[in-house]
Amino acid sequence: MSTTPDRTAIDPYADVLVAENDRLAALLEGVDPETGVPTCPGWSVVQLLRHVGRGHRWAAQMVATGATEALNPREVAGGKPPEGGLDVAAQWLRDGATELLDAVVAAGRGAPVWTFTGPQPAAWWIRRRLHESTVHRADAAIALGVPFEISPELAADGVSEWLGLLASRPAGDEPALADAATLHLHATDEALGVTGEWMIRSDGGRIVWEHGHGKGDAAVRGRAADLLQGILRRIPADDDRLQVLGDPDLWRTWLSRTDF
């Protein structure tokens, strides 16, 4: 268990990670562990839970060791939930988030560690694991046929975090956007302001983005929660919850070329 008395002193995202991870754990308690997850083909809900819980520990162990390269996920200590059903596994999932926070405290939030975007401060992993938890909570909600509820502010931050990951990738053979093409994402939640708008373009095949309003070759409008699910391919490109203006093929091509 965490010995940290004030998680907000670690990182602004620390409490949010714990809360969102708890929501995922609570959603999965008591359900049939063999329930399939349509948005993660071939997975059951217990495999989804194991993926998230192992990922928390994977990040925690890299922080704890000051890793300079990725740890093999198969070598993660405690990487499988204990026997005893989904209720026991749900507590194991909860404990994984606190393991990460304790590792950041012990290492120091600014300690360098390997990440998908190159060396970053240890606290970088808190936000990354937060949004891994939220998107997989969307997967679980879809699997169980219940609404996916998330605050507009957190959903918008998830969009920004995902775009940051994409922007860190080198140019590939098939760029997500053609040079000079622009994609505008616009969250319709009134409270977000400029944090709910994103202008995305290509620079030599690499993704570049900034908050702001403008005219894109394609524009996608919807609630931040739906934009988050849309860019992460949890709902179809032509889902009624999203309004696509301009070139719909640009949006479809973007989605097909921005998966990890």
What are the salient characteristics of this protein?
single chain, Four Helix Bundle (Hemerythrin (Met), subunit A), disordered N terminus, globular, two-stranded antiparallel sheet
Task: Describe the fold and architecture.
The chain is α+β, with helices and mostly antiparallel strands. The protein has two domains: 7-144, dinb family like domain (Four Helix Bundle (Hemerythrin (Met), subunit A)); 152-256, Nonspecific Lipid-transfer Protein, Chain A (2-Layer Sandwich), CATH 3.30.1050.10. The protein is 43% helix and 12% strand. The chain has seven helices and seven strands. It has helices spanning 14-28, 45-65, 86-107, 124-144, 152-167, 224-231, 248-256, and strands spanning 112-113, 120-121, 182-187, 197-203, 206-211, 218-222, 243-246. A five-stranded mixed β-sheet has the order 5-4-3-6-7. The protein has a two-stranded antiparallel sheet with strand order 1-2. β4 and β5 form a beta hairpin. α1 (14-28) runs antiparallel to α3, α2 packs parallel to α3 and α5 packs parallel to α6. The longest helix has 22 residues, at 86-107. The chain starts with 13 loop residues before the first helix and ends with a helix. The model is unreliable at 1-5 (pLDDT under 50).
